[in-house]
Input
Amino acid sequence: MTATEPAARRLALPEGSVQDKTAVLEITLDHMDQGLMMFDEHGTVQVCNRRAIELLDLPAELMTAKPTFAAVREYQLRSGEFDNETEAFRSWVRTSGFEGKHQVYERIRPNGTVLEIRTVPLPDGGAVRTYTDITARRAAERAGAQSERRYRLLAENASDLVILRDRAGERIYVSPSCKTMLGYEPDEFATIPNRELIHPDDYPNVEEKLGRLSRVQPRTVTVYRVRHRDGHYIWVEAVAKLAKSEGADEHVLVTARDVTERQMQAAELQAEKNRAEEASKAKGDFLAVMSHEIRTPITGMLGMVDLLAAENLDARKRSYVEAITSSGRHLLAIISNVLDFSRIEAGKLELERVDFSLASLLDDLHLLMSPEATERGLDLSFEIQPSLPQTVRGDPTRIRQVLINLVSNALKFTQRGSVSVTLSSAPSRGPETWLRFNVADTGIGISEPTREKMFLAFVQADSTTTRRYAGTGLGLAISKQLVEAMNGAIGVDSVPGQGSSFWFDVPLEPGDPTVAAARAGFDRGSIHPLRVLLAEDVELNRDVICAMLRRHGHEVAVAVNGAEALEQVERCRFDVVLMDVHMPVMDGIQATRRIRNLPGEAGKVRVVGLTADVLATEHERCLSAGMDACFTKPIDWDQLLHALAPAAGETQSRDTSVADTLLDLKTIRKFKAQLPSEEFQAFLKGALDDAEQVIRRMQTLLDRPVELAGEAHALKGSSGLLGLKAIRALAAEIETTARNGGEASDLIDRLPPALMTTRAEACSLFRELEQ
Output
């Protein structure tokens, strides 16, 4: 009986212990994964299982007949089993007989199957031969060998350094590029400890990152310095990955690339950035100094002229005064243009967002420009499209500045005819309301080549107009920069000899008419007489401001520096202090901080700053020092007197000129619109309570400037996000002072009263918003 007979028939043998065991043995042989043949001492096949027949493609009928070894070989020769072997092998097959000795070898069959053939001799002279299919194993081994050859080829020819190390840090493999990159032979490099190779400043970070490698974080990238064999250091970017192959321990594969040139370029870029920032700061400082030095004497001159104009003058003297006023205003306009241009170039321009009336804007422009138009015999008209909103939110000062530039140019270059200013809707470019301001004239017109360069700095229509028509050529360049800063666009249409039409489009949000009305509806005579302390070191400016205030019924005391102002506030009661910022002995910033530290009502006196510095950072510095408001010289008298009204106990509608010193109304209104009333009030109270906790922590950190700067930075961010403007300004200055190693105790002492005032303002604001 052979393994080729049906299993069912074999299992049907009569029961008996021998037959049962034989049947079980035959079933086992039939289901083995290995092929098996057993030969007797004469080389005759006694047993052949089904797997052997399948692996060798032998006919079942041949094997059932118990053929000899020679008969099996003869069949294999005829069927082409050995056609892929050498002729010598085939000759050996034909001539060799059965050998029952121990042997193991592999053979590839014509179908590609790889067989491991193993012969084990039996004690009686026969043998058992097994056939195992090892095709998959050999394919995997070949693939692994090919992969290893590829990776070794890549590693040994790559410019990057490749290192394989175990988890203990011992380097198992170092690629040959080590010699090129670091000057070491790979074997030499493999024995040097990391501590001797890595720069001492970088070593702790490298070891810490390598120690964090795990299955959760299997990869890390580190840039650090490695010592070259000649002693200098190079920068490398190393990628370390956790590697684990089947059946092997975990290893760390490191690939390192020389990034010295990249690091040097980054250092150069940082140095360039630092130099650019220093240059920008120097330009800003220059602007501040020039603004102060130029505007201070102009303030005195124009102030005295204003006082003189109010006197009872005859016609001839009045014409002299008007000429001085006109020339002074023109000089101030030129200076403002130059300073504005420099400020924009230095990136120091700050835009405001307030509610204002379009009609009031054009009325002011009409009032300002009509005298010049009348003097030139020109018709100046203004028109607003009826469908436009009455009130918008934006920067009316900058819009007015652009319009004044355009109208002034139109009047200057028009000898007869008219100049018209129209305001209409512009094609929408987004969700905001887009408006078009158009200034058209019947003047000399502009040629096409000249139009292309009209908005460049120091450019006029041609070289002759510079002499015929006075000006710096900066007006249009500044106008273009201002319009673009407001995210708008500006252009010109013109026909030589027929006139020009300059236009600009700007996006503006809908505004609150009540706020705009409050800004415009100020009456100088509504302020009750006040006791005012003026701190000003320039005698001419003192005379002008004192005369103007006394003309409106106010009592004025003077101080020539901050120290005198502080002394007088300590001794006497004042309703308001007008504080010049730049003074000898003690400046206005320091004096204000000292005043805020005074006990009782003296520390709460209203302080209004006066500065010739046009930079917005100067205003923020004044507010953070504790001033209630700050104005730029030359003084706008209406604006200054308006700022005195709260000290006189006047009931004023809240507007951005007052409340904006403490709160960012736009931000707060946005939060109010998104939350129910109770949630809004709770949210605002919670924000102020959190700020109080941060301030208490800051008071304990005076001797720890790094932690103090961190707390100040957090307070600056949260208060700015929530619209707590004064607290944000103070926190910003504390952060800067702490980071620079300065003394911040005075600033920190200013925070609790600022918080208290802000909390009161927030409560008042909440009540007004509810109404």
User: Anything to note?
Assistant: The chain has a mean pLDDT of 79. The first helix runs from residue 7 to 11.
